[in-house]
Amino acid sequence: MATKSEVVFEDFFPSMVEKLGADGFMNELCNGFRLMMDSGKGAITFESLKKNSAVLGLQEMNDSDLICMLNEGDLDGDGCLNLMEFCVLMFRLSPDLMKRSRMLFDVTL
């Protein structure tokens, strides 16, 4: 059982890919990014994440938790998430999708 400060993430991404297909799933990820981004900066900032935290069910998270979430996906160190960083983070949060991504998206390493 989750504590008050713990976020429980149920991974629906694999079933979404099966239902929507790879292109449909990527479109939904892009829609999610646009929902959370700061439209003036074209990225998810601390402020935009905090503003939208209730929509995400994260209203109980404190500022340092939100900053940690941003830092987890911030690959270029600018303090926010661009679309590519957001998508990479979403894939990383889904172990099942990561395992199946080579097959689903024809990714060759």
UniProtKB/TrEMBL annotation:
| Annotated EF-hand domain residues | 61-96
Looking at the UniProt entry, the stretches that span the membrane are none
InterPro entries annotated for this entry? EF-hand-dom_pair (IPR011992), EF_Hand_1_Ca_BS (IPR018247), EF_hand_dom (IPR002048), KIC/PBP1/KRP1 (IPR044205)
Keywords (alphabetical) are: Calcium
Tell me the protein's name.
Calcium-binding protein PBP1
In its UniProt entry, the species of origin is given as Forsythia ovata
